[in-house]
Structure to design on (454 residues):
């Protein structure tokens, strides 16, 4: 074996035989975060941009990270030349056309778009939508990857939210909008079909979860799938009938809608979605957990899931931080 | 005890042992009403990585322990939330219980405890 070439941004570095990628980069004074140098702290995580990295360099990483060719530079002894990046690669945008707009509830818009080129996304990932003037916001894809030409989004109208107000009021069918490459690590992989799944979402956090559920069911996921969707009031919920229909169709799918304020009507649970879920499921050992929506819910539910036995490797989350400052 | 050629870290079982210990130890800490408020505003997943770094060090494994960082990280807890010896003792208690649960021999537990104990003054800002 001889030395290999490592390309990072505009630099090319020689990786000598017996050296790790981290050794090679540090020798050239390229500043890469690192600490333990033996794969346990994961601070030197990088991403291979072309081929899959050596499997030994992915030891201990979450499966979605392995799937996206992330690796630990300190454990990586290249078998071939590599092109790598630190952090996410810069997103490129493509044009999509709006094909449908429909209200899911008074505040949430179901926006459907068609892309010219099929998009290689996984249900649960998000994209950045960019308006012509550059105003950009992240939205989760709400459909599964079988419809690779179609993207759907749940856009909640936020008081004073520049993008959401515009999408609700002005964006029209036939308009085109720039859509970034899919991003994010909160998604479904059909690698463990017997694992039980718990999904908790608040508000439009249902979007990625609905995509994940549809993808899991499409792959014949055999484990139990429990969805808890919460909002403060009934007005913030949607797809209640659709989810109940899915529940009748798939015996392993269970759906609970929750409202946290006031009395809940019959068939709806009273309380915050994470509290209702945790009360019903005292042990989550071996479960995979997806949490999407309000950052406080995500943070709290992460802790609750962990304390109920779920491992961090199996907890996937997407906290929706809002850009608008005028929210209540 | 006679001198052995293997390190404490190896005797304990290396990274796999640290992972097993973090799993038990961190849950004990988060479930303890005496100390879990100190973790209320943390991202518990990031915190778990720190727990792992801490246990790796206490196990005599590879680390880049930095007393100044440790002080800085706990300074606001000492100042605003009254972090003191009683809380450090509680953590030490969980560390010992974790290792006993994993059937680690007493002489190794004592060595781990001694390393962990050496961070007390940094943690408590003294």
């Amino acid at each position: 074996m001889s030395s290999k070439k490592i390309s990072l941004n505009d630099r090319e570095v020689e990786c000598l035989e017996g050296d790790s990628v981290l050794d090679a980069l540090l020798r050239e004074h390229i500043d890469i975060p690192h600490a333990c140098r033996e794969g346990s702290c994961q601070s030197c995580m990088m991403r291979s941009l072309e081929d899959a990295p050596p499997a030994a360099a992915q030891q201990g990483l979450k499966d979605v990270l392995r799937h996206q060719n992330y690796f630990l530079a300190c454990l990586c002894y290249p078998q071939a030349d590599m092109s790598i990046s630190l952090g996410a690669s810069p997103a490129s945008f493509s044009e999509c056309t709006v094909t449908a707009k429909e209200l899911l509830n008074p505040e949430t818009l179901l926006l459907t778009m068609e892309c010219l080129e099929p998009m290689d996304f996984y249900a649960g990932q998000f994209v950045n939508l960019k308006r012509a003037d550059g105003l950009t916001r992240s939205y989760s894809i709400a459909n599964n990857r079988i419809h690779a030409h179609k993207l759907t989004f749940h856009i909640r109208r936020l008081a004073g939210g520049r993008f959401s107000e515009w999408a609700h009021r002005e964006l029209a069918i036939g308009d085109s909008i720039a859509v970034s490459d899919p991003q994010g690590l909160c998604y479904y992989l059909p690698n463990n079909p017997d694992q039980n799944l718990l999904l908790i979402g608040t508000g439009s956090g249902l979007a990625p979860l609905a995509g994940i559920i549809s993808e899991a069911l499409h792959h014949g996921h055999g484990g139990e799938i429990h969805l808890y969707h919460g909002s403060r009031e009934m007005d913030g919920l949607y797809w209640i009938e659709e989810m109940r229909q899915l529940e009748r169709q798939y015996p392993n799918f269970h759906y609970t809608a929750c409202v946290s304020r006031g009395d809940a009507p019959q068939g709806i649970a009273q309380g915050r979605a994470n509290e209702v879920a945790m009360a019903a499921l005292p042990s989550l050992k071996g479960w995979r957990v997806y949490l999407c929506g309000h950052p406080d819910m995500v943070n709290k539910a992460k802790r609750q899931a962990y304390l109920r036995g779920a491992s961090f490797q199996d907890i996937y989350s997407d906290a929706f931080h809002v850009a608008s400052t005028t929210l209540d | 005890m006679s001198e052995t050629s293997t390190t404490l870290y190896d005797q304990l079982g290396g990274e796999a042992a640290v992972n097993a210990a973090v799993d038990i130890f961190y849950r004990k800490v988060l479930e303890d009403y005496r100390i879990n408020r100190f973790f209320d505003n943390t991202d518990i997943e990031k915190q778990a990585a720190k727990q792992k770094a801490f246990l790796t060090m206490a196990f005599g494994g590879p680390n880049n322990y930095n007393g100044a960082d440790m002080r800085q990280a706990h300074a606001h807890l000492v100042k605003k939330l009254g972090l003191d010896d009683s809380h450090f003792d509680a953590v030490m208690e969980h560390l010992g219980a974790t290792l006993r649960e994993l059937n680690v021999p007493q002489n190794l537990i004592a060595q781990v405890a001694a390393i962990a104990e050496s961070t007390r003054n940094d943690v408590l800002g003294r």
